[in-house]
Task: inverse folding
């Protein structure tokens, strides 16, 4: 592959493509993460199972974070009792993402030995939280849903939208390592589709119970979103046909995937939204954090060489301060 082809492929990555299918009253987004995700995962040297789960979470975070209409912050966080104890992903609108995972190596080794490496098994039981921070002058919004030990991130996200947002939503996520001229690289992708009817008829139909089913099944069993509209049933069925390789294939454009799914209904795409890896840590923010500790705690932080060392858990950047710098007043 020549350099021109490499550059062309890179232009397809680290992008979110919004789209709408007006005939089905759905809108959605497709994300492709390449260098941004690879930078995050290689920096920390995560084991493959941890990298895969964090890649899925990064794709989900990019899908949701790029939907913000203001320069706020979206955070996705899990805390659970599985080998992967915590995931934290920050998206600073309009385009910055950072991520970190905490895991127990011994429990991870055991899970690998017993072939229990699905996302659900690695996360275990706990919770998934999503927080939207609109700035210091606006209220924060947080939604939390449980992880029951059998949940993929897709399933947990579906539950979040069903319970917290009450928006029928379908999500597919995938992560993989691909081999190219530069060696193995991590990639992730995802697609999100939501049913947002504008016609009064379809809005009313969302609230109607279909009544008795001859099969004896309840409405939620027939439709997990509780929606009986044929348009949403069609959209859900189409998204469920998406294969993992279609989300991570470096040769498959997002537009081609959307066309494959919705060409009979006439999808319309919009301008892509770029995504890049960037940490928001700084010397000033670290100093402000250190100054919030008590004097005794600050003294206990001083190392043998007389400095206070802090490493950002997101980007691994190291900061070094003298006790005098920490105690000094912040300049106006």
Result:
């Amino acid at each position: 592959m020549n350099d021109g082809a490499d550059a062309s492929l890179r232009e397809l990555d680290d992008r979110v493509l919004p789209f709408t299918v007006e005939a089905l009253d759905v809108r959605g987004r497709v994300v492709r993460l390449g260098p941004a995700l690879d930078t995050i995962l290689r920096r920390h040297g995560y084991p493959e199972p941890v990298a895969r789960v964090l890649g899925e979470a990064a794709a989900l975070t990019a899908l949701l974070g790029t939907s913000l209409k203001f320069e706020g912050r979206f955070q996705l966080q899990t805390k659970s009792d599985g080998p992967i104890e915590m995931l934290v992903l920050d998206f600073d609108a309009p385009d910055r993402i950072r991520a970190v995972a905490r895991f127990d190596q011994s429990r991870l080794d055991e899970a690998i030995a017993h072939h229990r490496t699905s996302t659900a098994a690695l996360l275990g039981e706990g919770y998934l939280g999503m927080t939207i921070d609109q700035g210091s002058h606006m209220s924060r919004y947080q939604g939390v849903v449980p992880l029951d030990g059998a949940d993929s991130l897709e399933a947990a996200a579906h539950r979040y939208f069903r319970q917290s947002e009450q928006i029928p939503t379908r999500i597919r996520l995938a992560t993989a390592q691909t081999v190219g001229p530069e060696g193995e690289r991590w990639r992730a992708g995802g697609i999100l589709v939501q049913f947002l009817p504008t016609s009064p008829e379809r809005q009313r139909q969302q609230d109607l119970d279909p009544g008795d089913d001859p099969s004896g099944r309840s409405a939620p069993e027939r439709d997990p979103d509780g929606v009986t509209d044929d348009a949403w049933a069609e959209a859900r069925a189409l998204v469920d046909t998406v294969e993992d390789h279609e989300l991570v294939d470096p040769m498959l454009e997002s537009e081609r995937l959307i066309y494959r799914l919705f060409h009979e209904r006439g999808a319309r795409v919009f301008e892509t939204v770029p995504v890049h890896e960037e940490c928001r840590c700084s010397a000033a923010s670290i100093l402000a954090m250190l100054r919030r500790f008590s004097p005794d705690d600050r003294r206990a932080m001083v190392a043998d060489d007389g400095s206070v060392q802090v490493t950002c858990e997101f980007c691994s950047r190291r900061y070094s301060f003298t006790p005098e710098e920490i105690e000094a007043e912040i300049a106006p």
Remarks:
- The radius of gyration is 22 Å.
- The chain has two domains: 14-199+233-277, 283-327.
- The longest strand covers residues 183-195.
- The chain is about 35% helix and 30% strand.
